[in-house]
Structure formats: C-alpha cells, structure tokens
Amino acid sequence: MILISLTYRLEINVIILVGSQKGGPGKTTIAINLAVELAHRGHDVCLVDADSQRSAARWHADRVEQGHQPAIACVEKLGSVHSTLADLDKRYDVVIVDVAGKDSQEMRTGMAAADMLVVVTRPSQLDLDTFEHLSEVIQQALDFNPSLDVRGVISQAPTNWKATESKDAGEYLADYPLIKPLRAIVHERKAYRDVIPEGLGVVEWNNGPARAEIRALAAEVMA
To answer: Which of 98, 104, 156, 185 has the largest CB neighbor count within 10 A?
Structure first.
C-alpha cells in the first residue's frame, strides 16, 4: 500500500553528504529515504550516487521504471565531486550525496562542497572505533569549508526497548565534539529492506514507526 504525503514548499539550497568510515551502516538507506521525504515536502531533489557499488542508482532506476511520484533526479559521479555538486546546487533545492563507507576522494571532495555531513553509524563498538580517524578527516575538511555542519545519526538501532546500545553510542559520540549527534534514530526494521526493490521510501509504505523516524530525521536535518 502506498501512502500519499501532504506537500509544501520551502525555497532552499542545501547539499547533504551522507557518509561513514565503515561499510554497512545503512547510509544509502538513509540517503534515499531522506530524498523521498524531502521530495514529498515539495523540494526539487537530486540524489548523487558517488559510491561505485551503485546501490542508490539502482534504486532510482526502479523508481523511474515503476513511475513513482514525486520524481527525484539522480546523478552518478565518482572521483572528485566538488564541481559537480557546486553545479547541481544551482539547479536543485536539495542535493543528497551517497558516498562509499570509507575514507575516499568522493567523501573528501564532497565535504569541501557540502553544507552538511551526516555521519551514519551503527551502535556497535567496531563502527564507533572509526570516529577517531573520521574526526581527523573532518577537521581537515573544516579548514577548507568552515561552515560544514557535521551531524551523527545512529542507524540500525535495536527496537528492543531494553537494549542499551543506542544510549551507549550516544554517550560515545560525546567524545567527538566535531560530530553533533542528531536526536532522531533509525532502527532496524524490515520495512527499510522491503521498499528498496519497489523504488519507494518508507514514507510511501505502510510501516508507521519507520515513516515517523524518517520524517523526524528529515525535520531535524532541515531545521
């Protein structure tokens, strides 16, 4: 079942880079779901797939083939993405960039152009251990782009209310002041996997909790 969102429009121009230092935390999932939610809010959105795995581009192809609305543009770009992002920023309200989960040319050149970096991490020690190096990369990026707003979001959090991983991860993030934690948390839900082959986002699906957390994330990112 597809749910229709009410739309409204706010004139903005923003580049949001979604990345991490470790593969598998769900950054593509967050990138495409943010793109869908912001498109439903009336923004003209371009999704940039800057990851050689092409997951976002394949999802976008499915969305186009199945004719889902609102339409979202998609551009694939590897290597230096700075000039591409600067050009797209002139033509779209929101540019969302999905980069590979590693220290890459795409991430570094993207940070030089972006307004916001959203660092995606699972609430696991192996993921959190990458933050020391990532903080060094962010500090270097701030030398070239001092207005870069860096946020951290916990993804694939357990839905079990007794689990403490998310709380522990939030406390761990406090040790890295360059990365300001977002209040919104994205949990491990089957709905995020179900929508991918349909070319949809969870805000267009019939899972209320997933829909609510993506809307909360989008509202906080765009605040």
So the answer is: 98
Angle at alpha carbon of residue 129, lines to 126 and 131, rounded to 5°: 130
The side-by-side arrangement of strands in the sheet containing 14-20 is 73-76, 45-50, 94-101, 14-20, 116-121, 149-154, 180-181
**Strand-strand pairing, 180-181 and 149-154:** parallel
User: Nearest 5°: CA angle at 50, between 24 and 210?
Assistant: 45
Q: Is residue 124 packed enough to be buried (19+ CB in 10 Å), middle (13-18) or exposed (0-12)?
A: middle
Cα–Cα distance for residue pair 18/13, rounded to 1 Å: 16
Question: Can you give the pLDDT of all 223 residues of the chain as single tens digits?
Answer: 334 344 444 457 999 999 998 888 899 999 999 999 999 999 999 999 999 999 999 999 999 999 999 999 999 999 999 999 999 999 999 999 999 989 999 999 999 999 999 999 988 888 888 888 999 999 999 999 999 999 999 999 888 765 666 666 667 677 788 999 899 999 999 999 999 999 999 999 999 999 999 999 999 999 8
| Residues 105 and 79 sit within 8 Å (Cβ to Cβ) | yes
Q: Measure the CA–CA gap between 29 and 56, rounded to whole angstroms.
A: 8
Q: ω before 209 within 30° of 0 (cis)?
A: no
